[in-house]
Fold these 2 entries.
Entry 1:
Amino acid sequence: MTDRHPLDLTSPATRAALSRGLTTRRAVMAGAFGIGASLSLAACGSEGTGGGTTGGGAAPTAKAAQDLSDTEKVVNWSNWTQYIDVSEDEKSRPSLDAFTKETGIEVNYTEDYNDNDEFYAKVRPLLAAGEDTGRDVWCSTDWMVARLIQQGYVQELDYGNIPNGQANLVESLKDVEFDPGRKFSLPWQSGFAGIAYNLDATGGKKIESMTQLLTDPALKGKVTLLTEMRDTLGLVLLELGKDPANFTDADFEAAMDMLRKAKDSGQLKGFTGNDYTDGLTKGDIAACVAWTGDIVQLQFENEAVQYALPEAGFTLWSDNFVIPALAKHKKNAETLINYYYQPAVMAEVEAWVNYIPPVQGTREELEKIDAELAGNELIVPSDEVLQGAHVFRGLTAEEEQKYSSEFADLTAS
Amino acid sequence: MAEVALGTGGAPARPRRRHVGWVPYALLAPGLLWLLVFFAAPMFTLGSQSLQEGNVFDGYVFTGNVSVYADALQKYWPHLLRSVGYAGAATVFALLLAYPLAYVIAQKAGRFQNLMLVLVVAPFFTSFLIRTLAWRTILSDTGPVTELAQRLHITDLLQAANLINNDTLLSSKFAVIAGLTYNFLPFMILPLYASLDRLDHRLVEAAEDLYASPFQAFRHVTWPMSLPGVVAGTLLTFIPAAGDYINSRLLGNTQTIMIGQVIDTQFLRVLDYPLAAALSFVLLLLILALVTTYVRRAGTEELV
């Protein structure tokens, strides 16, 4: 699996393609995921009967529950925080309200997805025991989607209910390696991980590299990193001149050493999920590894919050809609996904969440709402910006186990 | 008087006692059932889980692998020690804060007694998590508390004592211990209040009549009489504080991680269930050992 690299970003062919814009970045990204295949190896070698539904060689299929969509007009959606448009008074979510008005389906929108591992730990016991999670749809990051598909925890989408998904998904994301043909998942948002800082808390200093973030004494005890291994570690690997799409065990150790040193020196305040936003706005966190969209949002609240895409490179990812096994309102969930795959609706969401949209035509719609946003590099990245974007390569089962447990030791002890 | 009256007719009471033999068991049944379902059974599950091997993808299988305990101890003994240290410190601070307060409420508050008790309990109307999050706002780097501490050079003092690692209060040993002290303070105050409330003030007066100084009266009368409250209070504070994972997570940094947080992460993020279960057991045994020693030393068998 380890030889499965994405396209070389510096090759002439890729560059030519990049000049066409976002599309190609996504293709690059799609190539990166050996993870789906690597996990199937894990399943082959398994003999366990312990807790999972995995057992045989082939990926198990998710069980469907009796679909109550027609009688119960609700859909339960779990999502990350600050990941959807809200009204001025922050009391309602306009795009969801419009959806309810249009379809008569109530949306129970819960922001309880703070971190992939944490969320997985929450739902895994239920899924493994063949029980309903109480959720009809949620948004998982690519590598987590790969795991969910492999373990048979997510259901196949019925495109009969999602015609917009078929028509409007950006070309390059149509055939990602962890989900060929997008049978199980559809992207919700994409984005970069880079460095964010609060000018008030850094004393006006700009923080532009991982080395500075991890060693500058001015930031001592005021730095947070993400618990999302692929983002934090990816940035450190890039800083060390390694490509996250193509690194060795030794590179991994070198990156971990850099992180351990920072931790032992008392540089770090902690490791966070999506919950760094509050501290960063207040200035309790001076600088951190952060996700683009969050920061564009925070800048509306506090102009001192700044964002830097490190020159050494930065990571990119997508979060994807998936429908878990035994979801009670599958059809409603699909109707919801279909609704968000309209460019005008996605543009409305984008004007607030400020991530990179996976829906064709969103840019044009966004220009109508807010031309300034449509010109923002973090939402509609230019080719130049995209050159710096990197993806984390797929990991074999052994690597996944080894790396994530070592990384977890760092974050939690 | 009533007893005397009953005493005369004592004979018929005896045969009745045989009939009611099952009553104590019936009364115990709900408690025992509770203990079985919510303590014994989970303990057994946890114990067997700690002896499993495998990974989350293929499932865990029972193999009787005891070495996980050695691994757990070897890897996480600093966190165990730290937890005991922080919980111990929090208990001492809570006692120092709670004793005078409980004494005033029990002995001096007069008609304000109930009001003061309500005020002690009032924070419990909000959730533990919210109360701890509030501390994050209180100790915020840009907040007035931090600013005042910096002006008065308290931060320099704390920094010299290695309780904080920069010039701010949040995300430090200091913040974690303060949070623990605050969160478990009512568990200290209430038992102390209960035992001090029962204190017969005439005994203190008697001591003073015998020419005891106020300090001697406290040392030889009040303090010994309140010992059951002290022991109960310290136990109720120390035990949950040692296993706490919220304070260290919300108020600490990467160098103040307590064992509870490690267990939480192993269970919920790493999904290494055997290691997490083993750590839970180690923590349980450690606390049990500490508490047993403490109770023996305090000699509460005679006091309670």
Entry 2:
Amino acid sequence: MKLMLIDWSCFGREDIRDAFSSLGYTVIRYPVGSQENHGNIHKEQVEKLTKEISRQNISLVFSVNYFPSVSESCNQKGIPYISWVYDNPQIQMYFINIINECNFIFTFNYFTYRTLRGKGVKTIYYIPMAVNAKRLQALRLSEADKEEYGSELSFVGAFYHEKTAYYQKVREGLLQSGKNRTAGYLEALCLTQLNTYGALFLKDCLKDDTIRDILEFFPYEALESQHFIDVSSVCASYVLARRVTKLERMKLLTSLSEFFAVKVFTYDTGIQPGKCRMHERTEPYDETPKIFKASKINLNISLRSIETGIPLRAFEIMGAGGFLITNYQEDFMRHFEPGEDFVFYESEGDLIEKCKYYLKHDTEREKIARSGLRRVMSNHTYEIRIAAMIRIAGMGD
Amino acid sequence: MKLFFIDWICYGRNDVIDAFWELGHTVVLYPVEIESMEDTSEYHLDYIVGLIKAIEKQNISFVFSMDYFTSVSEACLSKGIPYISWIYDNPYSRAFGISVTNHCNYIFNFNRYTCNQMMKKGVKTVYYAPLAANTGRLDKIQLSHSEQEKYGSELSFVGSLYSEKEKGNFYKKLSGQLIQNKKHRELGFLDGVIEAQSKVYGVNMMENCLTDTMVESIQKVLPFQTSMFTSFTTASYMYAAYVLAVRVTELERSRILCMLSERHQVKLYTPGETSIGNCILCGKIDHYHTGPKVFKASKINLNITLKSIETGIPLRAMDIMGAGGFLLTNYQEDYLRYFEPEKDFVFYENTEDLLEKAVFYLRHDTEREKIAGNGHDKMTKEHTYVKRIAEMLSIPFPNRG
């Protein structure tokens, strides 16, 4: 059978292709450039893709993240469209046409699944992310690699510093136009959320007049067609949650760097949390895993708009055989044993204590890393995931 | 022993006095130092001298007051007799003055959190004592048929909504001042903290979220000067407790009562005139005589604690259980030291949970009455004024009783 893979620079690109191949599919790539141009239904895109599906005799289409135009083509051709959404929120997956019968939309965030099912969307499913642990195990660290990537503690991730710092733009706009009260209000929401674990309230605190003010400086053009999401969610996720995440990552890394040797790998330039050693973001396919292997402790601080899901980073850390310490995310409890496969922290103080403890206790740390690795190797491979999705889409044996 | 009871219109006045008599002590009433509670907690020299003389003349062994008064402590210190105070107000700024460390002091606070904070600061005169109820008196109160009719309700709430208190409502005062001074960002910030706090149960984040720059800015329009009378607190605590917590409570109480009154019969006993949803406004009541009747006649008695009380069990909750009423309350940590949830009382975790539990316990009379009975039994056994006062006395006078 022929599978069309919507090809863009997403995670797991090669691993997903390999998984389909090993399940007996012939994989045809369909390049789309970046996903940003695909936020809406574009007639030309739909026509072009529909023709291509017919010409190549495609029986199934797959993409990472959801593309409304792709769904239209599949719907016309009557073939299943599987999408695996790993951005949260991915604004396109709230598009009105997600209810198309051809759709099998898999989200890694149980909260999103629960919310959309609650709204009557039957095409949404929950499936966690995965990792090609076998491939990562084959990567060897040279002495130079150990020097380059190794440290007591490492963090790989974004600080939403420049391009995606919507909060900063909104704040400047508000202050310049005399809407100081709203600026102060948003400032307080970020600060209170930063200091509160285990409760997300950003969205619930945004009232109509606040949202109106935000939208003046955060014009989200496609909002009208996103039927399954509230404007308050969009503002909370894109404007506030990113800000809170930035503040949180800065704050935690700054205090950690007082106690430990911390390396930070990030795209963002011009930031310096405490005494952390800053490195440029590494190539994710075969370079980043080396960080996870070489570091004694790998830190995950989830983006605050991910309500329950396990971020991809966590899987990759465990798949590389690294030791993972993470903030609490509900979905971990569905698939992993805390204290056995990974460790979670509940507060800044707790994080520091736990890092101290696990840096002192090599055997325990290594045991947990090994257990995490075993768990992802047996339950969370790309083959297992792809096979499950195909089965749900009715294409299995 | 002979004691001075510092007399003011405090909660539990008669019950405490009765408890002392019952324990075999002689209670002599002595007037409070200040005209009104709005007075700041400075020393009143004339009062101190007067009290010292009276203590000598009447051969007093110790002094007792509800809440704490600086001048009383100074007089006791000078006479070398114990001063026992029982704090039931929160926030209570007088309990943060430098005089609290006087070694004559035995300051009992109903809020465990405040005790811990003070102990961490090295204060050795602070103890934890939960509030109490005079179950003996409450048990004798019988409701006539017409009273049953008058006070009966599916749900009831007795307490302030704060909106009516123009004068004491510091939020209204401060927000007005901020607008006048064009400090809109500060006002927005406070509203943000208030809104966020009203969405989160079980965590008090207000004090931590008042940044130094914010406090500095507020200081300029509504000054709070730290001095020797506030040694054990901070400006951010004072603003959080006196300004923000009251506002959060105001919003929370009216939201909850609105919501409940849409589906149930809710009687509201509060001083204000403002209508809240479909609540039946019943005005202010006398806590000593009428309060217990409300608690006995209502199927469910609500407690929505003032947000500045971090862990303590408020007096209202003790009054409800003491009267044999069924208590549905927000979560406060100190409950779990003495009471079993779902057995002696019921707590809710958020508004949805509250709605569900109200429906459940209105439908299940047997369960509800059993819990009310258990709560009352526990109060009778462990939380009477006589028992509590005896416990307090055993600290300064370990060899008596």
